[in-house]
Design a protein that fits this description.
The chain is of the alpha/beta class. It has helices spanning 44-53, 60-66, 148-156, 184-203; strands at 2-4, 10-15, 26-27, 32-33, 35-41, 55-57, 76-78, 80-81, 95-96, 98-102, 105-109, 120-121, 129-133, 139-141, 144-146, 169-173, 207-211.
Length: 212
């Protein structure tokens, strides 16, 4: 059930169910945050920011609302795409996550503290993804929009990590899909693009894989 918050562009939601013990608190099948969350509607510029570098700068209005829940909310936070989930290394206590749930929405988790410390936030970009794909199918690398050919060049030139027995890896962040039926073709185009990049990687012994 969703209840309108004090500002029309925000929704407070609560979804019961299983939480990921070793991953972020969302379901990658439904793209919904598991547990209580505050949903924010993104502007076009914010969608571009999230798509290009995985970060979100809150508007003044959004930050004012978020301070009602988190007095120490930062001005900018890392965004986790709901299209992939996996195990996590040890995290800071009392983490607050920003989950990209649809192209124009994120969910801010409203959890309970696990200790007496303050809330913690991820405020630095994730260096893992080499490529990011926007909801409209544009490709970005390290915050810069690039062509498909440039993305292919990055994959072909990928270097091995310290794990010398493994092939090079290229991580790709996918956007959450549009939920409107008339935009299904856009979602299909994004999936097709990812599959093409995966196949190109295979032909050059490079593992192209999804990440958040």
């Amino acid at each position: 059930m969703k209840l309108a918050a004090t500002i029309a562009t925000f929704l407070l939601s609560s979804l019961p169910g299983v939480v990921f013990a070793d991953g972020y608190p969302f379901c990658h099948d439904t793209h919904e945050v598991l547990g209580d969350s505050l949903q924010l509607t993104l502007s076009e510029s914010q969608v571009l920011e999230v798509s290009s570098n995985g970060m979100l700068t809150f508007t003044k209005q959004q930050r004012t609302l978020l301070r009602k829940f988190y007095a120490n909310i930062p001005t900018k936070i890392r965004v986790i795409s709901s299209t992939f989930n996996d195990g996590l290394d040890t995290r800071e206590p009392n983490p607050v996550d920003c989950i990209w749930t649809s192209p124009a929405h994120v969910g801010i988790t409203l959890g309970e503290k696990t200790d007496a410390g303050g809330w913690t936030f991820e405020t630095e970009p994730d260096s893992w993804p080499m490529l990011r794909i926007s909801p409209e199918g544009d490709i970005y690398s390290r915050g810069t929009k690039i062509t498909k050919d440039a993305a292919i060049t990055l994959i072909r030139s990928a270097k091995k990590t310290n794990r010398c027995n493994e092939p090079p890896h290229v991580a790709v962040t996918l956007p959450p899909p549009y939920r409107e039926p008339h935009k299904a073709k856009i979602n299909d185009a994004v999936k097709k693009l990812l599959n093409e990049l995966i196949e190109i990687g295979k032909s050059h012994n490079v593992v192209v894989h999804r990440c958040w």
